[in-house]
Amino acid sequence: MAEKKEKAKKVDESILDAANKIWMAGLGAVQTAEKEGSKLFKSLVDKGVDFQSMRREVSQRQLDKISSIVKGGVGSVKGKIDDITQQKEGVWDKFRIEQTISSVMKTFGVATKREIDSLNKKIDSLSKAVGDMKPGPKKAAAKKAAPKKTPVKKAPVKKARAKKAAPKTAGPKAEAPKS
Questions:
Q1: What are the CA-CA distances from residue 70 to residues 64, 66, 88, 135 (Å)?
Q2: pTM of the entire structure?
Q3: pLDDT in tens, 128-171
Q4: 72-75: long-range contacts (C-beta < 8 A, 24 or more apart)?
Q5: Residue 47: closest CA among 57, 59, 35, 55
Q6: Residue-wise pLDDT tens digits, 23-37
Q7: What is the full DSSP assignment across 94-108?
Q8: Which end of the chain offers a freer environment for a tag, N or C, measured as fewer CB atoms within 10 Å?
């Protein structure tokens, strides 16, 4: 049993020794970070200043190019706006004339293209419906090819005796319709 206690004591000492070494390594890392960190921080600040000044120069050149393009384009845009304004006035005049003509045609009862197209569609649908109603050669052939149904026998019907007709009285003659 003494051996077991001795082994346990050695294990405990080795664990404490490893923990102590880890702690010391952590302290060494902190000290190194303090020394090297300030040097690294200063280096990063210097690089940031250089980068910022370089980007400002590039940005300013691009801004100058865009500014010159915009200034040159303003005159061109003004000319195009004037052209569009003139075209708009011409279109507006044409629209007024078309509106006046349309109003006059409506007053005299002249049908519009839309109304004529609508009537043409109705005529086409009616023509098709009438064509469907007429038995054509295809329908006649279909009727002939259809199997014959067996006729249903009807019960004989007794004929009623014919009664003597009442004598005709002479009344005013009706005129035949004229065609």
A1: 10, 6, 26, 76
A2: 0.26
A3: 999 888 776 655 555 555 555 555 555 555 555 555 555 555 55
A4: none
A5: 55
A6: 999 888 888 888 887
A7: HHHHHHHHHHHHHHT
A8: C
